[in-house]
Amino acid sequence: MKTMASITKSPWIIHYDGSSCNGCDIEVLACLTPMYDVERFGIINTGNPKHADIFLVTGSVNEQNIPVVKQIYNQMPNPKVVVAIGICATSGGIFRDCYNIIGGIDKVIPVDVYVPGCAARPEAIIDGVVKGLGVLAEKQAALAKGIADPTVSGAYRYENGTYDGDGTFLPEEEGDTVIAAAEPQSTDDENGLRVKPAMTEEQEVDD
Amino acid sequence: MDTVLFTFYGYELHVSYLVGAVLYVVLAPFAGGLIAGIDRKVTARMQGRVGPPILQPFYDVAKLFGKEKITVNNAQDFYVMCTLIFMVISGVFFFSGSNLLMMIFTLTAASIFLVLAGYSSNSPYAQIGAERELLQMMAYEPMVLLSAVGFYMACGSFNVGDIVMSDAFSFKYLIGMFIGYLFIITIKLRKSPFDLSMSHHAHQELVKGLTTEFSGRTLGILEISHWYENVFLLGFIFLFFARGSLPYTILGVAVVIVCYFVEILIDNGYARMKWQFTIKSAWIVTLIFGGGNLFVLYYLQPILAR
Amino acid sequence: MGVITLLILIPLIVSLVLLGVKSDKARGSIVIAAGIAIAALSVYFAVSNFGGSVLKPFSSVDGVEFFGKYFEAGPLAEVIGNAMLGIEVALAILIIGLGIKYKKILAILLSLISTPLLVWFELTKGHEIAVGDYISVDKFSLIMVLIIGVIGSAICVFSLGYMKDFSHHHSEGKDRRPFFFFMMFLFLAAMIGLVISNNMVWMFFFWEITTLCSFFLIGYTKTPEAVNNSFRALIINLLGGLAFVFAIVVAGSYTYGAFGGTTNGSLELSFLLDYGSQYKLAATTQGYAQTTEPIVGLIAVLLAFAGITKAAQMPFNSWLLGAMVAPTPTSALLHSSTMVKAGVFLIVKLAPVLGVSNLFDIGPGFFVTIIGGVTFVFSSIAAISQSNAKRVLAYSTVANLGLIVACAGIGTAEAVWAAIMLIIFHAVTKSLLFLCVGTVEHNIGSRDIEDMDGLFGRMPKLAVFLIIGIAAMFLAPFGMLISKWAALQSFVDSGNVWVILALVFGSAATLFYWTKWLGKMTAVVPDRINIEDKVHKTEWGILGGLSALTLGVTITFPFFSKSVVVPYLTDAFGALGETTYEALRMDNLIIMMIMVVLIIVLALLFYGRTEKRIVPIYMAGTAAGDNLTYVGSMQKDVPIQLRNWYLGDMFPERLMNRIGGVVNGTVFAIVFGYMLYWSVLLYQLLRGGGA
Question: Which has fewest Cβ within 10 Å: A159, B48, B110, C70?
Fold first, then answer.
């Protein structure tokens, strides 16, 4: 119970800018200012996924940053919560139809809280984070029972293996190191998250 | 009350020393955490913010202990554990009235274990942090040692117990040392302009520096060892004023509080400087204030003895 | 007498035998047998004499009993003395010959001055001076015998495997290993002779032999660089040798008459020390302006100068750094148990007559302390900029010797306690470090610290030994740090304020360069393949043994101090009215000892054990996932490279050497000016027929 309470009192944040126009990013940073002062809630902007509990993503996912978003997500220790900030992070927003845009963050990692807006207001962002705290508490309880969020696949060029005591990557089987970032797959991956192919004919026509 | 429990090759274990050591081991984490909480609150007020609750550091550590257990290799946790153990040992030396130099060397060992923990991860950001931490150590080490020597010259003993009970009012002889120590404690407390190695504020350049690869429980242990460290770093300031009587004790505590407030003010008033500035300024201050004080003390001592 | 003679004769005979042995197998068994014999004998000799007082096995009063036969000391000593003189002349001719061959005028010049001077002195005055004790073994000598016997022979045994690989790597030219082992064992014999000689002429003989041995060992590969560096070492050490000869001439020419009877010249070191101590005692009780007897002071300065050149203090440190061209066992030998230790041995031995009681008493001790202190701080800082492991070790040696020299210059019992402690710990640890680096170099093909990252994965056992060595050099609670602590305590107690400054800054630099190396070693780098199986068995044995010794000496030091070091100090300083011998209190030593055990236990219990899930390291979201590469532009894998800081811009090596050299050079200039003044005085004294 105690730890469950404490995690809601000390949510550390990592903020990642996908393909944002920087509008939402400025609003995120505004939350740190004396005006909004999120440190009231024990929130710290860490910049390090290994220390973070809440992943704030602004902007949508593009070809280049799929593995980046996935890596940050995977590197956060459980329990963790993803909050998509702004309409782009939620659905792709006005960039939705750009040739390089995949869509909202939930196309690549599971999102717990959506904060729409263009740009999202600081009040909305803080509200989103506070909503995330509830999810965090639930996940903390689940973790105590041994249930954790699975890692998403496709984060690393070399994966499906484990790491030994030296941090050496040990592939699961011969030849199963996959190149994920270079060739995005159009099919659903094992987490049920859709990944858009690099470029479709439709877009060619649109151009 | 202050009877000698047993003697060990010249070291006399007073009851008060034992009490001091036990109190330190038990209470220092609470005191340290509280100091950290007050620090954050005061910082927030200085910046016109409300700031987190005073108990925030405890919430943070409690949370860290509840996180998933991950690490990057099987060596790192050993070093972090050693950091905590040696930090506590050096604090115990301090509060049980033992040799000041022994305390400093043990503290150095603790810091080196921390640096090794950073190196061991073989991660770029952790390594930068480790190098910077090491550089900071090189910057402050001379002054710490000199202060100990200063105490010896002023009070005639390296033993904290003797210094505390000494008739000499150390501060009177050690003003230069005091200034020098205040300068380097800014590095030790990881305050701007010297927060090179693991600052939250530096995450654009070094993520979280030395602690980048620590997570969950490991980070929590490190946090606790910082609490332990900060308590006796402040105790060291108190030593300048200790004279074994109540008024001086009150004076000492008051000065510690003022000094810590000044440190917070400096932290908020400065941006982070380059590492070159850290080492140059620390060594120059050490030479001028520490070295100068030492020479003055040496030549004054025959006069003072009269 | 028996054992001490054997300790010189065995290495001597073995060295001559090895000169003729060509087969690996035969050499192997001879070296191992001789190594064990020398080590065992030195341990036996030391332990059996730890309880006793000063041993005088070869004195004109007692004569010599050896293998049941009795020899009159006088005639035998004369024969030995003449033989030594003959050998010295022959060696001088050899040096001159080599000097002509390689066009080294300075070497020729120095030989042409010192050898004829000594021969002239010996044939005229020296002949008539009665020598009481030719050999005198006090507890300090015993410690040195122990260091030379155990560590020196360990290094010789280690060389077997190392030199085999070495001649493989350098297959051009003929196999000169017989010559190598000849020199190594000769070195040991000369060192043991040196530390037990009481007659300064004998000591000088051994002194010159060590100079020549190091000359040949440094020039072993005969490359132009090796030849150059070996001559640099030779010239600097011959310069020291010249000072030694001057000291002998002065000591033998002066009439000592201040206390009791008159002595017309003396060549005995013990006499000089007694005489100087008596003067010092009188000076302190009766309030003389100077605490050092002028002539003894002059001799002490000359001998200390010889010691300083041999101990590679700034500005003479270049020879020791140049000596790095030699095969690593040579470096190990030079740095740990022989050569440089001969230099500090002599200076520490002189400590009772050096001594600087306060800043205004500018005695010989003052200048020795400055040289040592300056060398310590600047070579420590210079080591920061080095990435070549052997150069780091070399600078560290120079620095630590500087500390020893500074302690000896201070000349209180406490300071000498610290100095002896430093000698012991440094000898053990440095030999371990050099041999480790040598092994690493042969197996990974580089001695660069930057190439040692992840050594833990590639050579785990060796990395552990190397880590023990490095930790023992600077980290609490290990030996060298305790010694530094003791040195600090003695500096404070003797009121040497500015050496304290040198010590604190030098220590900070020391911390930096060792830790960053340690960091490289302890970094856990993935995908490293274990390549340790090529290391020879003898090498493992020696490395393991030395590591155990490094830890063992730290743990047992409190008892060692009580039983050996303090009795020596009581003998040497008791007469001076000093009562504090140990710089550190026993309780602190024991606490440190407990902490060493604690670290070992913690490491054994917890190192490398984790139940946590192991995840990849953070690389700003673009890690490739194998912990070795990240995804760069155009989706390319870019390997990460982690490099240490060397702060070359802030602490350039050349600048540090220059500052240290200039400061110490100025000190020397002042001292020699001072000495000139004294020589004029001496001349007047001699003309006047003594004081």
Answer: C70
CA torsion sign, B1 to B7 to B8 to B11?
positive
User: Which residue reads 């054997």 in tokens?
Assistant: C6
- Phi first, then psi: what are they for C135, rounded to 5°? -125, 135
The pair of three-digit structure tokens given for residue A103, joined into one six-digit string? 């869509």
Q: What is the ipTM of this complex?
A: 0.94
Q: Which residues contact B15 (CB under 8 A, 6 or more apart)?
A: B1, B2, B3, B4, B5
HSE-CB at C403 with a 13 A cutoff on CA atoms is 37
Q: In the structure encoding, which two tokens stand for residue B110, read together? A: 């603790």
CB-closest option in A65, A158, A181 to C635: A181
For Cα atoms B168, B173, B176, give the angle at the middle one, nearest 5 degrees. Answer: 145
C620, two tokens? 């700003």
Residues in chain C closer than 8 A to B77 (CB atoms): 606, 610, 612
Domain boundaries, chain C: 2-609+643-687
Question: Which residues of chain B lie closer than 8 angstroms to A37, CB-CB?
Answer: 44, 49-51
Strand C64-66 to C69-71 pairing = antiparallel
Pairing of strands A81-85, A54-58: parallel
Which pair of structure tokens corresponds to residue A85? 């900030």
Q: Where are the alpha helices (DSSP H) in chain B?
A: 15-46, 56-66, 76-95, 100-120, 124-155, 160-165, 170-173, 175-188, 203-206, 217-239, 246-269, 275-285, 292-305
Mutant choice from C591, C622, C640 vs B, greatest count of B C-beta within 10 A: C591
- Closest C-alpha to A45, from A4, A17, A21, A86: A17
- Ordered by start, the domain boundaries in chain B are 65-305
Write out pLDDT tens, residues C113-148: 999 999 999 888 877 888 888 888 888 999 999 999
A61's enclosing H/E stretch is: strand A61-62
Write out the residue range of the structural domain in which residue A86 sits. Answer: 2-144
Encode pLDDT of A125-166 as tens digits: 999 999 999 999 999 888 888 888 888 888 888 777 777 777
Q: What single DSSP character describes residue C388?
A: B
Distance CA A137, CA A133 (A): 6
State residue B169's pLDDT score: 84
Q: Could you report the per-residue pLDDT of A8-31, keeping only the tens digit for each?
A: 889 999 999 988 899 999 999 999
Nearest CA in chain B to C509: B138
Of B11, B126, B152, the CB nearest to C492: B152
CA distance B64 to B216: 4
Give me B23's structure tokens. Answer: 């109190």
Contacts of A159 in chain C (CB under 8 A): 625
- Would you state the structure tokens that stand for residue B220, as one six-digit string? 């929590």
Closest-CA distance of chain C to residue B34, Å? 30
Helix (H, G, I), strand (E, B) or coil at C638: strand
What the block records as the tokens of C176 is 């000169």
Average pLDDT of the segment spanning B27-48: 94
- Name, in order, each residue with C-beta under 8 angstroms of C51's C-beta and a sequence gap of 6 or more: none
Inter-residue contact C277 to C300 (CB < 8 Å): no
Q: What are phi and psi for residue C186, nearest 5 degrees?
A: -60, -40
Strand segments, DSSP code E, in C562-652 are 613-614, 629-631, 637-639
Q: Is residue A33 part of a domain?
A: yes
Answer whether C486's CB lies under 8 Å from C419's CB: no
Which of B75, B98, B122 shows the shortest C-beta gap to C642?
B122
Task: Extract the tokens encoding B67.
Answer: 């996180």
- Joined together, the tokens standing for residue C327 give 């095969």
8 Å CB contact of A37 and B204: no
Burial class (CB in 10 A: 0-12, 13-18, 19+), C25: exposed
* Chain A positions in Cβ-Cβ contact with residue B65 (cut-off 8 Å): 3
The verdict on A16 touching C (C-beta cutoff 8 Å) is: yes
